[in-house]
Amino acid sequence: MQTLQKQIQSTSKAAIMYNPSIILSLFFALILCSGLPLTEAAGGRWRLLQKSVGIAAMHMQLLRNDRVVMFDRTDFGPSNLSLPGGKCLRDPKAVIKVDCTAHSIEYNVIANTFRPLMVQSDVWCSSGSVFTDGTLVQTGGFNSGERRVRTFEPCSTCDWKEIQLGLLARRWYATNHILPDGRQIIIGGRRQFNYEFYPKSTATQKLFDLPFLAETNDNNIENNLYPFVFLQPDGNLFIFANNRAILFDYTKNRVVKTFPAIPDGEPRCYPSTGSAVMLPLKLDAKSIEVEVLVCGGAPKGSYTKANRGVFVEALKTCARIKITDRNPKWVVETMPQPRVMVDMLLLPNGNVLLINGGSAGTAGWELGRKPVLNPVLYHTNNPLGRRFELQNPTKIPRMYHSTAILLRDGRVLVGGSNPNSLYNFTGVLFPTELSLEAFSPSYLDPEFSSLRPAIQFPISPAKVRHGQALKVGFTVPGKVAPTKVSVTILSPAFNTHSFSMNQRVLNLGSRAFRLRGSSKYEVEVTIPGSLNVAPSGYYILYVVHQEIPSEGIWVQIA
């Protein structure tokens, strides 16, 4: 409230008279300062983008051309979108042996249009990440797809290419992560307590055992699928499965450190599906501190009970740990609502968005209940007990097999939800959902337009080098607080089953702030020099002013 009062005092009469956005901003400020009651869900807006894209968006990845690749599975039966030119998929293991409908699309964010793509094997519950050149590399799946590697290049006419035996083991519910040398590591999957690499060399043409995955496997339930994996600044991997984590040196196949279990001991991985993020790395600090946040999930026994028709309330807690501490400990926080099958997205300003899911049951066919319609903002840097903020609700339940990703303009693309074993639109509790929505977090609310930066240079897409000093020019319509300007870069994630693989935000800070002209400014930042911190590839760069981000630009770190 004090910030808003200062904004009112520092705004000239002329600015108020000729700037509608300031009028709106002051209107909201007066309401807040007056003490009039406001609902907690005062922020954020929803927009329906497409009533139907023909498929259920079970997996999503934003590419460097502002297109989003989505797909579901080939054994759902026929989708609501035909393949072009008489193309048909012939799969003897699928429900429909000859299927002439699409199970993947490319969505054009800018034009709000989509086109069908053709996958050649079953991509159900698969995983992926983006190579340094911007190519999506997607691995595993079910039946015909369990050992496949698929690639999709970002071009307006490209389609899927597949390598039949690109993997050594069947990968179903596995996790991928890009590595500093440009390879991907593929970890786990159903009954796979091991990992492998892609592409392979002579030295890596084999499977590597990972006993931690066997140790975290609950009999007949699992609770360790789609493990949460994050590359660390020291080059090791943080791997979380079930209710605990390790720091793992994949180059020597050894556990470097074992972290304590989350205090409540409850499972957080599939099918007791919660989610996790590595909080933004602040690179302008003397040393890089690393924190991981894990939220939601389902209590022990929930999966078994849900299969018997008893739907237990989901977990209402998050747990946060600073893994770079000498003796790391989990700090438990309470969310506004219980959540299972929740997606967690890093936002350009360093906060976290919790979105999608239910408040009872677990992941799995028709095993979730009580949709949670309100997203929640987690304010990363707020004091404990003041970090959660409800946002305005959607009208569309997003349950099992829902997805969400951040777009370059700061909106969140939301799709999917199919807890049914086929496309099923009637006679079920949660029908198959083919729509796409955009959620605009509260930082895009009109009241903040006077604070919002607009990047002038570099021009998107820009190519930069590790360790390079980079000047960033931008404009801000209103008064600028130089000490509250920062530059962040974000690695777009591969999202499925409530986990965003390869998600990463780096806070580059800012220095050498200077005025370039009327409402024009410039700061300088340094691109990370370490491949462990910033693996080569495509990122989205944002200027953030008082927690209000600009629209992003694409940068390739090479």
From TrEMBL:
Which GO molecular function terms does the record list? oxidoreductase activity
SUPFAM superfamilies given for it? E set domains, Galactose oxidase, central domain
Q: Where is the Glyoxal oxidase N-terminal domain?
A: 58-443
UniProt keyword Oxidoreductase present? yes
Tell me where in this chain the Galactose oxidase-like Early set domain is found. 452-557
* Superkingdom assignment: Eukaryota
Give the coiled coil ranges: none
- Recite the UniProt keywords alphabetically: Oxidoreductase, Secreted, Signal
Looking up Pfam families in the UniProt record yields: Glyoxal_oxid_N, GO-like_E_set
Q: Where in the cell is it found?
A: Secreted
Q: Which Gene3D superfamilies match?
A: Galactose oxidase/kelch, beta-propeller, Immunoglobulins
Cross-referenced InterPro entries: Gal_Oxase/kelch_b-propeller, Gal_Oxidase_central_sf, Glyoxal_oxidase_N, GO-like_E_set, Ig-like_fold, Ig_E-set
Might you report a single GO cellular component term? extracellular space
Q: Indicate whether Signal appears among the record's keywords.
A: yes
Cross-referenced PANTHER family: OXIDASE, PUTATIVE, EXPRESSED-RELATED, SECRETED PROTEIN-RELATED
The protein depicted here goes by the name Aldehyde oxidase GLOX
